[in-house]
Amino acid sequence: MPFLVQTITGNVETRLKQAYLALSRRYLAQLGAAESDEDAATEPKDWEEARERVVRAGSSIEITEQDRLVSSDLSVSSWKPVEVINGLNHIAALIAAVECLRERGWEIHGCMPTQQYADDTSDEDADAARQRKPDLWGLDPNGASFALEAYGGVRYRNNSKLALDLAALEREQGGGARTLLAAQTSAWPVVRVGKKLTATCAKRHGDFSRECVTKAIFESGDYQILEVEQIVP
Asked: Does residue 89 have a pLDDT over 80?
């Protein structure tokens, strides 16, 4: 199955925002279609009616050629509502990172917006994480390469995602790239410049851990972008 949003190279900020707009319109339309005006104004009378409404709300969301008129980076296919909302949250974190870095003179060269955004639901392990491309990549103001991983969920460290993202960035660090993480401020544990950040991965992903040192913290609205270094097992 293709990614919900395909790899973007060139004009990344504009195309991310177009993808978010197209997906959000489809997602909100799905929610509206799931509830009639009468349903929306009343509580379910019993569990059976409640289940019927839940089933309607959980119906697949169809991404069509019409949606691609807004964003040509979308994949035409059927998607579960949870896949779409996870994708929207992940794209929002990437947009915040792009805006933050662009304002500081960084160049954005490419993005993979929805390759692996879910909370601990994939079968990815440390080796697989190190093989894939980062969520966002480009050059800093001095021409050095950077790689960034983003998280759109609510608790970055309380699942395998942070450990997997650090494993992915470990390879980029080995190649000399600056390495960054982006998430909502509320999703981070307490972070301070110069302090260690640790994460553990579930057994189904290989039962491993990673730690790093926070080098810098950038603010972008409700998001924080951390530059991290010294990523080690």
From this structure: yes
